[in-house]
Amino acid sequence: MERDIYTHLQAWKTSRRRKPLILNGARQVGKTYSLKHFGKTCYDQLVYLNFERNENLADYFKETLDPSQLVNILRIHTGIDISPENTLIIFDEIQECPKALNSLKYFCEEAPQYHVAAAGSLLGVKTAQEKGFPVGKVNFIHLYPLTFFEFLSALNQEKLRTLLEETTTFVPFPTPIHEKLIKLLKLYLFIGGMPEVVDEYTKQENLTTIREVQLEILDAYERDFSKHAPSHEIMKITTVWKQIHRQLAKENKKFFFAAIRKSARGRDYEDAIQWLVDAGLIHKSLAIEVPKFPLSAHANTSAFKTFLLDVGLLGAQSNLAARTLIEGDSLFIEFKGALVENYVAQELIASHRRDLYYWTSSGTAEIDFLVEGDHHIYPLEVKAGENSKKKSLLVYGKKFPTTTLNRTTPMNLKHDRNIYNYPLYFISRLLKLTP
């Protein structure tokens, strides 16, 4: 399965600033597969070391962190004549060997000619806690579940994807193409972008099996809580995790701790939420009252929404029935549009690789997302239906005059004066079209 990450990996290989690479991302988003595929297709040789499967590998790093000695040891261990530039060395499940993680610093400083890439389960959690982390000595690339465009590629819909990527103006798509893309989007909202799930669908198109795979992934995540989280936080992490779909199903999607239990307070669950964020399992969107650059400096960290890493998993967690796929637009409005808003959050993170923010005005209006461009802050309202109400956008535009007011809905490309509508399937192209 081709992933867009390969373009970034190839750029890393040839970069003048190349350092050892850490491929970040939640479990089961395809990190190992992507690195192996990259190594097999872009290098003459591949050296793959998995510290979880072979615990004895850690012994090599107890003796020395000198890159030259380590390379010689790995030559003997693998029987491969490791050569600079032509061999990709992969340290997988590197969180199981902190010294291997520390060795990346010395590969950067003393042996930059070697191409070393690392990945691991819950590496975001481990690196947040690891005191010997090689700060400033590694490059990062983040891998997410398949985006909608990647989903099109996986379903052999490359012509549709190319059409979307080459569109640069607000000219509506032909109606048959628009309707086909809406059907494919509905399918994506149910399946999501977890590689194993998408791969299973391409093999037999059985939605019952798809749901079984999704539930297995959710179960594996919960087992990770017991295995990797601090023992005193496991119950809180599990509680927050199971609250995500309930919080998104509310009319006001702001995270309310009282929904967990009446006496719950933010500081009691702060570490649990951050653990899930570091693990890549949820995304936070922070509230903004005054949209000014940089948004991060004006965010209210105590008011936020939470989104799941994958919209398909959100549907599975919510026990969403497969029949919603064929019941008109019910999939879009399910859980008060929670699936659609979660999908948009995913697409914005994957395409813009920036933090999420939303705007609220004392309960009178709310804009679902604020997106920082090079020179402007762009408001984005998400609508699961095709209604024409724009109250919140108009309130925002009156308070904060801006060049464009943006919406994303199931409707086709269109604009009315300074209000621009992006079809939901096209939202990754936000800010890339000519008004």
Overall description:
With 435 residues, this protein is an alpha/beta fold. It folds into two domains: 138 residues, P-loop containing nucleotide triphosphate hydrolases (Rossmann fold, 3-Layer(aba) Sandwich), CATH 3.40.50; 272 residues, no CATH class. It is built from 17 helices and 14 strands. The strands form three sheets. It has a five-stranded parallel β-sheet with strand order 2-3-4-1-5, sandwiched between helices. Helix 17 links the parallel strand 11 and strand 12. Helix 1 crosses helix 2.
Query: How many strand elements?
Result: 14
| Largest sheet: spatial strand order | 2-3-4-1-5
Name the average pLDDT: 93
Q: Portion of residues in helices?
A: 40-55%
Largest sheet: 5 strands, parallel
Structure classification: alpha/beta
Head-to-tail CA distance between termini: 35 Å
* Total of helices: 17
- Contiguous uncertain segments of 5+ residues: none
What's the gyration radius in Å? 23 Å
Shape: globular
- Number of domain modules: 2
Strand proportion, as a percent range, falls in: 15-25%
Short description:
The chain is of the alpha/beta class and 435 residues long. It has two domains: 5-142, P-loop containing nucleotide triphosphate hydrolases (Rossmann fold, 3-Layer(aba) Sandwich); 158-429, no CATH class.
Strands, helices and their partners?
Layout: H1 5-14, E1 21-24, H2 31-42, E2 45-50, H3 57-63, H4 67-78, E3 87-92, H5 98-110, E4 115-118, H6 123-129, E5 139-142, H7 148-154, H8 158-166, H9 175-191, H10 195-204, H11 207-228, H12 234-248, H13 266-278, E6 282-288, E7 299-308, H14 311-317, H15 330-333, H16 338-352, E8 356-361, E9 365-367, E10 369-372, E11 377-382, H17 391-399, E12 405-409, E13 414-416, E14 419-423
Parallel strand pairs: 1-4, 1-5, 2-3, 3-4, 6-8, 11-12, 12-14
Antiparallel strand pairs: 6-7, 8-9, 10-11, 13-14
